[in-house]
Amino acid sequence: MITRTVSVPDLKVRIETALEETPYRPWCVHRLYEAIVAPGGPDAREDMLELTQRAAEELVREGLAQREFVSAIGIGVHCEDSLYWSRESEKRTLADFGPEYESPTVLQRLASHFQCRGL
After folding, report:
1. Which residues contact 16 (CB under 8 A, 6 or more apart)?
2. Please, what are the averages of pLDDT over each run of 10 residues along the chain (119 residues)?
3. Which of 7, 28, 43, 96 could pair covalently with 91 via S-S, beta carbons 3.0-4.6 A apart?
4. Which domains are delineated in the chain?
């Protein structure tokens, strides 16, 4: 299990590997976090999501990954996410990945990221 001591360089390697192994499908930040960063518990989730996004953004800046932003409003709450995919992919936009990544389908999937934390 990875703990809070995980480094951005280590995450970059892990993320780039995951993207290159699946060039036919983009990864959202939440999926990268859940698949690559073994959660250190619910209290570490936000910090680790932020670290995961920072590592993925560095890959984009270095030309090692591609990214597109998505934004949706559901139940009065604004949700944003970034989807990343391999630079080796022939896809240049989310819509190139097919109907699953076109609006409104991708926005409905984005809204599914909401987690109930109880009332």
Report:
1. 59, 64, 65
2. 69 95 90 79 76 95 93 67 89 89 77 54
3. 96
4. 8-111 (1.10.10)
